[in-house]
Amino acid sequence: GQQLNQSPQSMFIQEGEDVSMNCTSSSIFNTWLWYKQEPGEGPVLLIALYKAGELTSNGRLTAQFGITRKDSFLNISASIPSDVGIYFCAGAVGNTPLVFGKGTRLSVIA
Amino acid sequence: GAGVSQSPRYKVAKRGQDVALRCDPISGHVSLFWYQQALGQGPEFLTYFQNEAQLDKSGLPSDRFFAERPEGSVSTLKIQRTQQEDSAVYLCASSLAPASSYNEQFFGPGTRLTVL
């Protein structure tokens, strides 16, 4: 089946630093999604991308849908302590089920 | 409440017991999804309902897993004769429209199942 490779697995950064994480796939998706999950909660959608090459921002978050449709990245600028959590990428093709990566665990040191 | 709710939030079962996990989707949402999230992993799709119809159950790991949504709103995921490998967080998500193309899925907080 489809697999998403998400990297890095974990990150420890200083407050105020920028963060970059990415996701690659062995096959094409036509929708890329980025979620954040905090302990004891379900994933919350941060950004949805629908077109190859699309660059979308949501506050301090920016995500891009790769031209090949096999990758996506998420950047967080000027990190703050509440950015702590696990960030998941997910891909979708039409009405097939979402496929999730294994997540990037972000820790922010104040 | 406005969000997806799940109950119980935590369930401990002895191996061999049957369990039932409940999901209350957002009112009016047509689509409902169940996912299994093992420790340190991303969610993995189990099954999908459009109203009361179970349109995709390709992710259910065995015939011990059964899901229903008889009236097109509340859904129950039942696991029979639980095994230790069933220990995971079970997430429910709903979306407004049929999944003909991607529509935002809103997730509940999950039920953490521990099988001893």
Give a written overview of the molecule.
The complex is a heterodimer of chains A (110) and B (116). Chain A is an all-beta fold. Helix content of chain A is 0%, strand content 55%. Chain A has strands at 4-7, 10-14, 19-25, 31-37, 44-49, 55-58, 61-65, 71-76, 85-92, 99-100, 104-109. In chain A, the strands form 2 sheets. In chain A, strands 2, 4, 5, 9, 10 and 11 form a 6-stranded mixed beta sheet that branches. In chain A, a hairpin with a 6-residue loop joins strand 4 and strand 5. Chain A is globular and about 40 Å long. The model of chain A has no long low-confidence stretch (mean pLDDT 93). Chain B is mostly beta strands and 116 residues long. Chain B is built from no helices and 11 strands. Chain B has strands at 5-7, 10-13, 19-24, 31-37, 44-50, 53-56, 65-68, 75-79, 88-95, 106-107, 111-115. In chain B, a hairpin with a 2-residue loop joins strand 5 and strand 6. The chains are: A mainly beta (110), B mainly beta (116). The A-B interface holds A 4, 6, 31, 33, 40-45, 48, 50, 88, 90, 92, 94-95, 97-103 and B 4, 33, 40-45, 48, 56, 58-59, 91, 93, 98-102, 104-110.
Give the key terms.
A: 110 residues; mainly beta; five-stranded antiparallel sheet; 11 strands; globular; B: 116 residues; seven-stranded mixed sheet; four-stranded antiparallel sheet; 0% helix
Q: What's the SSE blueprint?
A:
The complex is a heterodimer of chains A (110) and B (116).
Chain A (H helix, E strand, L loop, with lengths): L3 E4 L2 E5 L4 E7 L5 E7 L6 E6 L5 E4 L2 E5 L5 E6 L8 E8 L6 E2 L3 E6 L1
Parallel strand pairs in A: 2-11
Antiparallel strand pairs in A: 1-3, 3-8, 4-5, 4-9, 6-7, 7-8, 9-10, 9-11
Chain B lengths: L4 E3 L2 E4 L5 E6 L6 E7 L6 E7 L2 E4 L8 E4 L6 E5 L8 E8 L10 E2 L3 E5 L1
Parallel strand pairs in B: 2-11
Antiparallel strand pairs in B: 1-3, 3-8, 4-5, 4-9, 5-6, 7-8, 9-10, 9-11
